[in-house]
Amino acid sequence: MGLPPERVALLTPLVTAVRSDLVRGGFNSNFDAPGAMPPKEPAADSIPSYLALSTACEAPVTGPQTGFDLVWPDLENLGRIGVLNHAQQVITEMKQKIAPVETRVAELKDDDRPTVFPFEYNEGTATPYAPGNQKVINAVLVTAGGRNLFADQNKA
User: How far apart (Å, rounded) are the C-alpha atoms in residues 143 and 67?
Assistant: First the structure.
């Protein structure tokens, strides 16, 4: 899998030169593209790596993302670098803030839900990309009461 010329792989010399405490990737290509640092390699230099579940697209997602079930473990896992209690507090507070929204949204009729055209242009591609139902943006839209125009597309 090659990277478009606009993308830069996470190269080991760059990561080790800045003495990172953690390398977090949001896409599989951060670690598996030619020239990219394999996920296990930073551990050899005492730099842990983490591929976020909620944004890794195909890897952990088996169906539509309609809630934050992949975000919570991301926050908890990232909290394990030394701030686990804080991470758990953030998760609790986020769930408390989301709960009343979910209650109000549950009362909406389908016709009252706005249809949203989500698109991304941050992946270094030449054209914008419209995510389907397997990206976390779908969960955000559903939770907020909207409908992803591409919710019928079983893809990230």
Answer: 7
Q: In whole angstroms, what is the distance from residue 89 CA to residue 135 CA?
A: 25
Distance CA 143, CA 123 (A): 24
Cβ count within 10 A of residue 144: 14
pLDDT in tens, 11-69: 666 777 777 777 777 776 666 666 566 666 555 566 777 778 887 655 566 778 888 98
Question: How far apart (Å, rounded) are the C-alpha atoms in residues 93 and 85?
Answer: 12
Q: Which residue has the tokens 């080790």?
A: 16
Helix axes 71-79, 84-106, angle to 10 degrees: 170
**Terminal Cα-to-Cα distance of the chain (whole angstroms):** 17
